[in-house]
Write a structure and sequence with these properties.
It contains 9 helices and 12 strands. The protein has 321 residues and is of the alpha+beta class. It folds into 2 domains: 137 residues, 2-Layer Sandwich (60s Ribosomal Protein L30, Chain: A); 147 residues, PurM-like C-terminal domain (Phosphoribosyl-aminoimidazole Synthetase, Chain A, domain 2), CATH 3.90.650. It has a 6-stranded mixed sheet with strand order 8-10-7-11-9-12. The longest helix has 19 residues. It is globular and about 65 Å long. The protein starts with a helix and ends in a 21-residue tail after the last strand. The chain binds adenosine-5'-diphosphate and magnesium ion. The site of adenosine-5'-diphosphate has 13 residues, from helix 1, strand 4 and strand 5.
Length: 321
């Protein structure tokens, strides 16, 4: 099977590559063409996943396809964008039809869940690596950025934290757990649910937003810096799943929620008057803190004591002291 046959069989022929609203030209030419309605902006984000760094190698290609697109789509959710399309740059060590079949199947399922159409890509040989670029649309001026948090706003998250990081020892085969505990954590890791509906709902409501990929404290630091405010996180308010608590205990679950990555849950700041409406529409939302004057992120216990840990989250190139 040559390169063009591979592209045709597994990607051009895939259900998610058959075009749709906004896709004027899909796979097969030198560029794809997207139509953006007047009054809307294009939101664009790229994510690269490297075997052995972002996922175990070898791993299940079906799950990898699902997860790669979910992770990319989560950035659209964080901006309040409506999903439109994506491209896939795929570097493969060999062209293994059964691997590609399973990978394309996982990718298709997530593309359908997220209403994203495959419009192009690139296929090369080398160590396994995927780069996905997602495109979304958002009414002009309404994208949720990291820069608008106001003193007095509430700090909220879209749902339970720490499940992705909690799953990691299971994914890596370092630990085992009974299915009732392992399954929900592994499901969260391999098939994160990008909070697309919540992101779109928060347009014109939230003052800032992002998706948590590197750990709550590290990612809240980005909002604090971009908005020139201080974020206060209450440890007692962290939403933790029963599976995570059963697997890691309270200390471990809190550590996973605060500093672990791979959650793909939204964190956002909200004027207090918006809270009842948001809770009524999205019951998984939790208030976990407040926006204060100042800078940085501070973690407090039930008595209000500062218990901010030194370690913040994962960085590929850590800052030198
Ligand atoms: P070019 O040489 O002009 O860059 P290619 O031969 O690389 O084009 O690709 C041919 C067509 O197939 C293009 O439309 C490209 O976007 C698409 N394509 C290539 N690889 C992939 C892939 N992995 N997934 C989806 N589309 C792909
Ligand atoms: Mg070309």
């Amino acid at each position: 099977m040559g390169e063009f046959e591979l592209i045709r069989n597994f990607f051009a022929a895939a259900p998610c590559a058959q075009g749709g609203e906004g896709v004027a030209l899909g796979i097969g030419d030198d560029c794809a063409l997207l139509s953006v309605p007047a009054g809307e902006q294009l939101a664009i984000s790229t994510d690269t996943l490297v075997a052995g760094v972002h996922f175990a190698d070898p791993c299940d290609p079906f799950l990898l396809g699902q997860r790669a697109l979910a992770v990319a789509a989560s950035d659209l959710a964080a901006m309040g964008a409506t999903p439109l399309a994506f491209t896939l740059a795929l570097t493969l060590p060999h062209n293994d039809a059964s691997w590609l079949q399973a990978f394309a199947h996982g990718l298709n399922l997530m593309a359908q869940q997220c209403a994203l159409r495959l419009i192009g890509g690139d296929t090369t040989r080398g160590p396994l690596c995927l780069t996905l670029t997602v495109f979304g649309r958002v009414p002009t001026g309404q994208a949720l950025t990291r820069g608008g948090a106001q003193v007095g706003d509430l700090l909220c998250v879209g749902g339970e934290l720490g499940n992705g990081a909690g799953a990691l020892p299971l994914v890596l085969g370092q630990r085992t757990a009974e299915p009732a505990i392992a399954q929900p954590l592994l499901d969260h890791y391999w098939s994160p649910k990008p909070q697309l509906a919540l992101g779109q709902y928060l347009r014109n409501k939230a003052s800032s937003a992002l998706d948590i990929s590197d750990g709550l404290l590290a990612d809240c630091g980005h909002i604090a810096a971009a908005s020139s405010v201080r974020l206060r996180v209450e440890r007692e308010a962290l939403p933790l799943s029963s599976a995570l608590l059963a697997f890691l205990g309270q200390e471990g679950a809190r550590e996973a929620a605060l500093s672990g990555g791979d959650d793909y849950v939204l964190a956002f700041t909200l004027p207090p008057g918006e809270l009842p409406g948001v809770l009524a529409a999205h019951g998984s939302v939790r208030v976990i803190g407040q926006v204060l004057a100042g800078q940085g992120v501070v973690l407090v216990d039930a008595t209000g004591r500062d218990i901010t840990p030194a370690h913040r989250g994962y960085q590929h190139f850590p800052e030198t002291p």
